[in-house]
Amino acid sequence: MDYRIEQQIDLSQKLEILADAAKYDVACTSSGVERNNSGKGIGNCIKPGICHSFSADGRCISLLKILFTNECIFDCRYCINRRSNDVPRASFTPQEVCDLTIGFYRRNYIEGLFLSSGILGSPDLTMDLLYQTLYKLRTEYHFQGYIHVKAIPGADPELIERTGYLADRMSINLELPTAEGLKALAPQKNRPKLLAPIQQVRRMRIQNKNELAVYRHAPRFVPAGQSTQMIIGATGESDWQIMKVAEHMYKKYEMKRVFYSAFLRVNDDSLLPVIPGGPPLLREHRLYQADWLLRFYGFGTDELLSEEKPDFNLLLDPKCDWALRHLEQFPVEVMKADYAMLLRVPGIGYRSAGRIIKARRLGTLDYANLKKMGVVLKRAIYFITCGGKQMYPVKLEENFILRNILDGGGRLRTAAEEQPVYEQLSLFDDPRFSM
Amino acid sequence: MSSCHCLMIRVFQCEDTLTGILSGVYDAWSSRLGHRNVRLQTGDNENMELFCEYEQTVPDLEKAEKVLRTIYKKLGEEAYEMIAYAAVCPHSGKADAIYRMIVIGLSLPDGREISRMLTQPDVQLVFELRRKAWHIAHRYMGFVRFRELKNGVLFSEIDAEADILALIAPHFADRLPLENWVVYDRRRKKAVVHPAQKSWMILEEAEAFADLGNSDEEAYYESLWKVFHRAIGIASRRNAGLQMSQLPRKFRQFMNEFVDL
């Protein structure tokens, strides 16, 4: 028999174990903060963030995403690192994390550090280790790159506060969209305990903003804001419920981002669902699209979904779906419509809408201009007129638009070619005869 | 003046750099032939056209700076940035588009409007090229891979489609102020050199970079990075197509996590 008891492992093995354990965390953005180097250390941050590589699943690698430890005392059913699983365990030391971060950062492999952790011993102990690591990195190595750190729910608020002054972004995962789901799958966690640090970070950020207004050089608290993450599809929530939670997080807690992570069945547990066809990636994608609509396009959850229609149409993106159900608001005249309405047109994004507003003050636009400005005409043509004209004679009718959009990539069928569907045939119905 | 002369278009051929193009703008303007009768072109022309006379523009820092100052003062910072970025993209029409943009801009009551005149084809082209240059530069900010040489210098090689060295240099200079580093553009045989705690400079015709060999630590960190890169991917979400579109092959030859895979 092959026993493995307390074997010494080297840094490479540790990295393998703890990166592997951290991979299910979706957030890997390095955006939201602009900071120049002081001239005395290493690192800076740029507002849009930078992707440094892409992993085999096509996700961006921006930060060195690792767990500090996967020796976790919790037993959450969806988690690969739960106590009852037999997986190799390891813990870094603060020094090792610093070495890795600086070594990678110098070579431009990464944009910074994403430090998460299992619960080692107690929340306080774990949070303290994270704090020590960040402190070492920021003060000893003068590292000024991006740091995203997890706040450990249940840890001393004092520790969270101190860590927040060293990090750029802090996140506390909601794990599951509803309190009931959390109770079923993560018995040691509960909703109020998760929300307490979120509330704290929000409060401190507001306080910090006031301080900064008075003292420009006051230390900044979590300058890139906080984020959270939810697992999608592990429990039976509808998209509507999920979006409601997300909207609440954005409004009430001033979150920068809510991340959605398609449920992966990593543990064979009777309480976890088996989803045929693998993780619900398309659903995850639709939720992200809707998330963008909430944050940048002025939509509300109740416009996109309702109790009667609780899930997104997997075939159509949420904006198109909304537009098709509100055809009375279209077509939109590009030369006249206000910014808010332009944003609601499928195929027009917030950047192209901004460009349209600027450019039309100085001249008339045509469809070629729109295309150059980044408008996706493939989707937009059904919903806009430009200078009072449609690009092609298309019908503003739900079935027609739906079929053409779903056809995707194929040649557009103009109204004249369009065969009437779901209609009683009659001798004079042929569209070629009617003008 | 013979009427025949009026038909002729004078083509100013300028060097394919910002200095070259702006010197061309200066020369074309001061030739007083009328904007309709001049054209700007970068690089050598393979195809001579009829009814054109060609004139070589010598890149002149002083002329270029004069034009640049005018752009900054009259057309505003936005247009200034647009032109500086667009100039690094390879495009046959860029020099002329930049010239036209400046001409139109200076004829406006408020020159700063020019950066928003996206319905104007020349401005549109400059706008597009600027966006493209920024995209390329931004990608290289992430995909540049330094390796540590024996003498502690961080060395990196790229093969960029646009001349983006000057666009990424300030970023890395700010990021690694205490390091000696070099980014070498293989295609243009140019290099940005940054001595520690000094300002960066561009070396033209940097042909021979004696390879000192890597430092002892280098292989260790490379192997760690490969371990990390492999471990962070989720097998059940595998999506090679997405990975390829986000990170095309042309970048991978310089990225150690993809070499010898």
Q: Please tell me the overall pLDDT of chain B.
A: 90
**Helix and strand composition category of chain A:** alpha/beta
Query: Which blocks of ≥5 consecutive residues of chain A have pLDDT under 50?
Result: none
Q: Quickly give the CATH architecture of the largest domain in chain A.
A: Alpha-Beta Barrel
Order of strands in the sheet with most strands of chain A? 3-4-5-6-7-8
Helix content of chain A: 25-40%
Cα-based radius of gyration of chain A, to the nearest Å: 26 Å
In terms of per-residue confidence, which ranges of chain B show pLDDT below 50 for 5 or more consecutive residues?
none
- Major sheet of chain B: order of its strands? 4-5-6-7-8
Order of helices and strands of chain A: HEEEHEHEHEHHEHEHHHEHHHHEH
Count of DSSP H/I helices of chain B: 9
CATH topology of the largest domain in chain A: TIM Barrel
* Largest protein interface, residues of each chain: A-B, 59 and 54 residues
Q: Hey, roughly how much beta strand do the residues of chain A contain? A: 5-15%
Tally of DSSP β-strands of chain A = 10
Number of distinct beta strands of chain B: 8
Average pLDDT of chain A, to the nearest integer? Answer: 88
Work out the helix count of chain A. 15
What would the principal axes of the Cα set say about the shape of chain B?
Answer: elongated
CATH homologous superfamily (4th level) name of the largest domain in chain A: Aldolase class I
